[in-house]
Amino acid sequence: MSDTQNAGEQRIPVTVLTGFLGSGKTTLLNKLLRRPELADTAVIINEFGEIGLDHLLVEKSDDEGMVTLNSGCLCCTVRGDLVRTMSELFLKRSRGEVSPFKRMVVETTGLADPAPILHTLMTDPLLASRYRLDGVVTTVDGVNGASTLDNHEEAVKQAAVADRLLLTKVDIADAPKLAELKHRLQHLNPGAPFHTVATGEIDPNQILNAGLYNPETKSADVKKWLQAEAYEGGHDHGHGHGHGHHHHGHDHGHDHGHGHDHGHGHGEQDPHDVNRHDDRIRSFCMTFDEPMSWSTVAAAFDALVTYRGPDLLRMKGILNVKDTDKPVVIHGVQHVFHPPATLDAWPEGDDRKSRVVFITRDIGESTIRKVFASFFDAEKKGWGKDAGE
Ligand SMILES: Nc1nc2c(ncn2[C@@H]2O[C@H](COP(=O)(O)OP(=O)(O)OP(=O)(O)O)[C@@H](O)[C@H]2O)c(=O)[nH]1
Fold it and tell me: In what residue span(s) does the CobW C-terminal domain sit (predicted)?
């Protein structure tokens, strides 16, 4: 465990702007780049194929701080290009060859799966030492969004892993359909603050600084980052599904495979609805009252990642780990975990419950709970000693 990642965070925050084809990413970016909050922003635009036009549509006064990658899709063939481009931009910045940008926006193609892009940011040693993920901002088309979600699983993933969800084109969309789509998105991803946007107009503060590190307070803002209360029954997501309000106060030694809301796709698979892509997505927050042994937690996550890695779309958490007073923050995307970071203090003082938010595909809460329970049981029985405690 290292605490280097949140001590005086110097790395450049990166916003990944994603959203299905035509959902309004470029329109949004254009408006954002005119705002003073984004004055010192480098932009990378990924276009699919040789005939991409987006870069011609994005107006930026400082052209050197904008790079277009058009040899393929960032999530597949051009990851190497992303690494190279981001590294080169950083070098140019150090040499004074481009203006000293303070943040970066990466606009993905409409078909991109954001996960590999996040992996690249998290795992490439060069990038990870210079940049940090601030957040994933996903645009959803207010007019075509519902059918896109029905027909394209990538669009569902883009919305499910978002840190901020933007429903666009509200100026031309039908109000009842918008309300339905809003409800659907909030159900899909209850933890992501949600905003409506007309012609790209939004206060940049609503979408920037979504990461763990808050540059305004110069410290970690776990509460804002984790949004755990969104899953704990404190919010009504339209129907009051109460994403996990039954999760309070469980001792990690037990498995409570219970209380799933089958009718709405947040429990185990609903046999009637398996064809709806977003009904494959689950989001829930698990809480654990007792301090956990790090080796046991790590082994449980290892097992989950090994067997279900591709379906663990996103995990964020704050853990109370035995033998340390300091909270440990974890962040994973599919099979890739950030190195865990140790914070100086618990964000809410005496409340030291561990909380882990999961966004998964086809994995219900009870399954994950069972995995944790079996590892905690094994630890109790002394098997954990073999895991190197
Ligand atoms: N009326 C209206 N039109 C919008 C809005 N946002 C985007 N559009 C229009 O929708 C079309 C697609 O918008 P873009 O911003 O190019 O979408 P994109 O997500 O960058 O598209 P790709 O690059 O194809 O993935 C354009 O014609 C925009 O002018 C909006 O909020 N209101």
Answer: 281-376
pTM above 0.90, yes or no: no
Number of neighbouring beta carbons within 10 Å of residue 203:
11
Measure CA 360 to chain center. Answer: 12
Q: Which residue has better confidence, 224 or 233? A: 224
CB count within 10 Å of CB 175 equals 9
- In the reported structure, the alpha carbon of residue 24 is separated from the centroid of ligand 1 by a whole-number distance in angstroms of 4
Q: What is the pLDDT of residues 180-214, one digit of tens each?
A: 999 999 988 988 999 999 999 999 999 998 888 77
pLDDT greater than 80 at residue 68 = no
Q: Which of 26, 141, 195 for mutating ligand 1's site (highest number of atoms within 8 Å of CB)?
A: 26
pLDDT 10s digits, 80-133 = 778 888 888 899 889 988 888 899 999 887 777 888 888 888 888 888 899 999
- Phi, psi angle pair for 304, to nearest 5°: -60, -45
What ipTM was reported for this prediction?
A: 0.98
- Residues 170 and 139 sit within 8 Å (Cβ to Cβ): no
Residue 329, helix vs strand vs coil: strand
Virtual torsion, Cα 361, 365, 368, 373, nearest 10 deg: 180
**Which DSSP string corresponds to 114-170?**
HHHHHHHHHH-HHHHHHEEEEEEEEEEETTTHHHHHHH-HHHHHHHHT-SEEEEE-T
CA 287 – CA 364 distance, rounded (Å): 15
The Å distance, Cα 26 to ligand 1 centre, comes to: 7
CA distance 65 to 50: 21
- To test ligand 1's pocket by mutation, which of 20, 27, 55 has the most ligand atoms within 8 angstroms of CB? 27
Single-letter amino acid code for the residue at 288: F
Ligand 1, residues at Cβ distance < 6 Å: 19, 21-27, 54, 110, 168-169, 171-172, 197-200
